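User: Some background: our group keeps a shared notebook of sequences we're curious about, and every so often someone picks one and asks for a predicted structure to add to the entry. Today it's my turn. The entry only has the sequence so far, pasted here. Could you supply the structure so I can complete it?
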Amino acid sequence: MSTQTQAAIQGFKEELQAMSDMAERFAAKELHPKREENDHYPFGELFTGTIKNACDAGFFSVNLPSDYGGIGMGEKALASILEKISMSDASMAGIIFTNAAALEIINQAALESSCEAIYKMLSANDVLPVAFSSFTGIGEMDVPVADKNGKISGRINFLVLGGITRYAVIPAAESTQSNKISYYLLDLNGKGIEKSEPVYSLGLHACPAVDIFLENAEAILIGKAGEGEKYFKAVQSRLSVAAAAISLGIMKGSFLEALQYTKDRFQGGRQIINWSEVRMLLANMIVEVLVGQSSLAGACNDLENGVIGWEKTARAVAIHVSEMACRATVDGVQLLGGNGYMKDYGQEKRMRDAGQAQCLLGMHPVRKMDLIDMIIEEGQ
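Assistant: Of course. Here's the predicted structure to add to the notebook entry:
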């Protein structure tokens, strides 16, 4: 390895660590102190100031190409940021992930078609984040229809960030191409668009979503017509490591809070951390955390180095880590006893958030079936 290459690798590692450290500081200052208050949305105020600060910190530009004012660091940096953010409040991680998924659709389209005009629109001030249906797979949703003039009519359920942003990346069936799916950039301030009230979800309450209704709405085609399913599958593979990072962060935050609580809590004159049952639950949690951490690191390296089969590994890790997070957060609630069910301790929120995070880029059972379908197809 040349000295120049070594220097480049070291420089990237330092940048990656700097982004991770910044995300940790951001979470501690902006998210953790108001975790309970922020979770009241949509029955309380949305933390719009915090979202603006996340934009200023560059968290919405991680996978925006540097030619258009982005950071262009890719999935490993995104995963590192999301893990740190999710340890405090995964709702913000859901917002960052949604924007990244929307941008990645454009990145995939740009590999085979010019998207310069779209990138320039999104590089303007105060445009990011971009809305996207980040909790639904493309095969699981009823998509609107684009007519021969490119005008779109229909409905999209649970468009994440659709109520607070200007632009959205949405799928539509092409009426002139046997209903093949394409992706479009939609100006949510345009004509022919109505929005519902915010949709209340299981977890990630401050990652807001609405249903939208379209009637001959104008939009800009992203990439090639009819290639939407291909773009989505590529995004599903590449951002699986980011989805896994959110689940890992939730799991880590749950463990650390449970650990601290059991150290601070005394009963019968003893720290409850000295009870064998408590230690066993903590042991179960840290095993899940360490396995998830190792799995995610391996998947990131495989993706970064283009190892054959990295797509299957990334998807499997996302599925597995999300399952572990659901188990670990339940243990986290149990370790706090009755307090674990109280909102001000944060554990019941993490339990709900872990369940919601399982749906990133598609329902959990569907993603499992998609994975085995990939493997079976490769063997034929």
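Suggested note for the entry: The mean pLDDT is 93. The first strand starts at residue 145 and ends at 146.
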